[in-house]
Amino acid sequence: MFNSNHLESPVQRIHHPLLTAKRIELLVKRDDLLHPTVQGNKWRKLKHNLLELKRRKNDALLTFGGPFSNHLYATAMVSKLFKIPAHIIVRGPHLDLQNPTLRLAKACGAHLHAVTRLEYRQRYDNNYLKDLEKRFPNTFIVPEGGSNQFALQGCQELAQSLPQSDYVCCAVGSGGTFAGILNGIPNTTQLLGFSVLKGAKYLQTEILKLNPEAASYNNWQLLHDFHDGGYGKFSETLWSFCQMMTRTYHLPLEPIYTGKMMFGLWQLIEQDYFPTNSKIIAIHTGGLQGLDGLRYRKLI
What we know:
Layout: E1 11-14, H1 17-22, E2 25-30, H2 40-55, E3 60-65, H3 70-82, E4 86-91, H4 100-107, E5 111-115, H5 117-120, H6 126-135, E6 139-141, H7 149-160, E7 167-172, H8 176-184, E8 190-195, H9 203-210, E9 220-223, H10 236-249, H11 258-270, E10 279-284, H12 290-296
Parallel strand pairs: 2-10, 3-4, 3-6, 4-5, 7-8, 7-10, 8-9
Antiparallel strand pairs: 1-2
Helix pairs in contact: 2-7, 3-4, 7-8, 10-11
Family: Belongs to the ACC deaminase/D-cysteine desulfhydrase family.
Active site: 69 (nucleophile)
Keywords: Pyridoxal phosphate
């Protein structure tokens, strides 16, 4: 039922004078092309959650997200595709149904429950989760962003689909994608995570919580200098870079996740961070629906 038998997402090679001069090979894993509607790391994370829901014979799915969340969008799409009722706790307190993400979720038939920011902060609290289990019986609960043990399995599969490389790079929000990729790459490959949040040193702890084995690995690192002001924030320079990549390489980027990672990676290449003849794979984790939200808020 939930087997993703569609083709694996393609890998795109980037040709640029900078890369030639530095003798760097740069490939982009185009997980934004993984599925027509549920792309990137959100499908990778949801796939095994859905298999677990089926195994437990649950009737519905419940999760959490901000009003412009990629995870909210993907969950609503999955709900429609597989005919699984979905309840989404939305950080509120009000639903703006002109918001393109929420409008899509509503059109998919997802049940949206706006809560105050105060209540939303309880989304990891065990007592709050128990209350939700009573309110929504026989419902499978997925954490915000989809990051849990089942998500790691899907992200490990992503890593195992990659060609051999010296470095793998990805954007880091909640840490789930990064923690899963770490399980799927050889220990000779370095994994670099570009944090999209400001002051997110806690991500180290989150990754170790999700993947305790990571404590014994020495092939991973989180980079905290490329958040460009914090989550959801971005400079004109970053946005110009995203537009250049879209125009020149037909590589669409949004400036919240993958755009920040690619721009940070580009700066590291300019700064000779990588040894000559390095082969780098950058993961495009999707999230392009976020561009509609940025346009709606007149931020681009």
